[in-house]
Amino acid sequence: MTRKRQSGVLAIVVAGLLTLIGVALAAKLSGVPKLLELYEFIRDTSLLLVTVIAAYLAHIYQRRNTFLDNLRGQWREIVQAKAALIYYCHLPLPKLEDYLAAARQISETIDNMRIVYSNVGETDDLIGFYPYAPLQHMSRVLEALDPRKTQPTPAQLEAARSEIWEAFNVIREHFLDEFDIDSPSWPVLADRMRRKKQPGASAHGQTMMARQIEEMKARDPQR
Fold first, then answer.
1. Do residues 35 and 211 make contact, with C-beta atoms less than 8 angstroms apart?
2. Which end of the chain has the least Cβ crowding within 10 Å, N or C?
């Protein structure tokens, strides 16, 4: 279940609950016998209603967690496929077995997307569009480097690396939006930042270490 769909379900549930509370309050304040009966009915069934809603929301969150687990696995496959293709493009004289290994990796990644997302615009009669076209572009870039057709030149391999990186960055920019990822509380943004802590330990740690050394020597004086 995508984040957008989950948010839609939660909005409907909250709106329904607020509407029901509003109806119950209005019925109670109206003083009309029939409406008071409606209020009594809502009050008597409120526990059952809350139980059903809680069970439904638990089901929704379980589906969401399962979806995110599948999505994390898919992202790992995408990263591994990108790495396999970049590795192939760095080989000075790529061989057929190298090509087949990279082609298998990207092919599996493309097909395994089916367990995470359906095609966009897919119906019972229409195939729709593959949700992440840059993956297919990465595959076509690799196909152009098939050593069975011609030995790729260094210039072709360099150009292919550039295209693969660009396609991967496009996927990353959109794919990871589905996750609720926050910035770290204490990021390290300077690449050459040094540690703030100095070698050593507190007095308590030093005392504990000295006591353990004494105990060790008492058990084994030769050490």
1. no
2. C
Q: Is the pLDDT of residue 223 over 80?
A: no
Residue (of 103, 98, 100) closest to 140 by Cα position: 103
Q: How many CB atoms lie within 10 A of CB 117?
A: 18
DSSP state of 120: B
197: which residues sit within 8 A by CB, 6+ positions away?
none
pLDDT of residue 222 exceeding 80, the answer is: no
Confidence of residue 183 (pLDDT cuts 50, 70, 90): confident
Instruction: Report the percent of the chain where pLDDT is more than 90.
Output: 74
Distance, in Å, from the CA atom of 136 to the CA atom of 110, rounded to the nearest integer, reads 7
Question: Model-level pTM?
Answer: 0.79
What would you report as the CA-atom Rg of the chain, rounded to the nearest whole angstrom?
Answer: 30
Among 101, 116, 103, 89, which residue's Cα sits nearest to residue 171? 116
Report d(CA 78, CA 118) in Å as an integer. 17
Distance CA 72, CA 77 (A): 9
pLDDT, position 138: 97
Q: In whole angstroms, what is the distance from residue 170 CA to residue 131 CA?
A: 12
